[in-house]
Amino acid sequence: MSLSLSLNINGQMRAVDIDDPRITLLDLLRERLELTGAKKGCDRGQCGACTVLVDGKRINACLALAVTLDGAEITTIEGLAGEDGLHPVQAAFIHHDGFQCGFCTPGQIMSAVGLLAEGHAGDDPERVREQMSGNLCRCGAYRGITEAVLDAHRTLNATAREDAA
Amino acid sequence: MNRFDYIRPASVAEAVAAATQPGSAYLAGGTNLVDLMKGGALRPDCLVDISRLPGLDRIEWLADGGLRIGALVRNADLAHDALVQARFPAVSEALLSGASAQLRNVATLGGNLLQQTRCPYFYDTASACNRRAPGSGCDALQGENRSHAVLGWSDHCIATHPSDLCVPLVALDAVIEVQGPQGSRGIPLETLHPLPGDTPHLETMLSPGELITAVRIPAEAIAVAGHARYLKVRERTSFAFALVSAAAGLELDGGVIRKARLALGGVAARPWRARVAEAALEGGPATAEAFARAAEAALADARPSGDNAFKIELARRILIRALQEALAGTPEQRPALPASPFAPPSGARHVA
Asked: Which domains does chain B have, with CATH numbers?
């Protein structure tokens, strides 16, 4: 069975033929499109290392069958930085030491980008922690991660205010 | 994962026709199904992708004041709908207490109702499980079973239904709309999941090919909006299934309970409506003594299925706490940790 998909990946249209409906979005990205930023941790939707944005929303790429996503817009960690440098969430993770080994970091950052777009956490660290609970960090860098998300929230709000002014 | 065919029908009628074939399974968000297929617990021959069927992703208010939620509405969209929050706050709180933000963005209403138990022996294909492989036995009976059922179980299966959402939904008398080869029908959600008896593999009352298209919550259920809570005890702070949960809604007339709506989660193979406890409360005063009597009544038939006697007392206490919080009034702002008995709405910290 051959299936043709059209995907917008990090702003680029990609035509992808897959021969097996079992291929997950995560395997498609990592094994066929050489985008290895999204990590395979548990591969069962429990650790969040594979988090990417699909049509602007954070999801677990390991539980999404690629064949179901024809026409979708996908953003991975590789597509986050702009020409001017790092995305504010990436910069905040570095500034606040939001990682140690780094394996979960692409998923943490994509999840944080999704969280900030959802806009339900505000500047409340309790809400940030709760809404980041789908991303595990075995190094235990949670304090830095929470501070980074809160800092990025402030930065993005300030930028939005400047843009509005 | 086994090999399977993949089809994407264009209409509900086409989907029903395809899924009536033996070995077919509906695929919506896939957050439970794909996981089960990766472990080999489910091995469908054909996935019928319904995720793009038109018209099933709407939240509609009906002329009679009730709510109709399309089966493909995502958990996050339902939970954050402003009117749903205002009129059915326990539904919103239950949704937000479940899974992770990533999963809530994908998981659908219909899939939530039809999700499988999280009994580890169901997932482990090397274990005996009457639910997965009829007649093979139940390894949970003598296994790690501290999280298993205390109500309505049998010697053939002691699994629980894991949904948070279903708990307030049954308390609110939700009805599911179903489309099948014989046409459409409505089924009270309370009867969707049969108790295991000696046929635990019969997981729902749906016939082959029948598709859940929507869930309706009747207008009368709005009457408890001002006094409604969902509370959930879990093994870790977030992203965990309920050991025990409770939905409570009260309609008050002065200090007297005109109508009570109560259901328990994590205690049985179905979301457990506590009708005896409701009857014990209705017409009487909303007092601590009345709540304690109601909790006794709700768990009167409970018995441990293994190393889980603690869940019976836990269920009584969480039911009483849910009633106390419902009496105090639905919080204006949702707590930072939804449904946590440890997180008062004042915003106090729930972790050090």
From this structure: 1-53 (3.30.43.10), 226-328 (3.30.390.50)
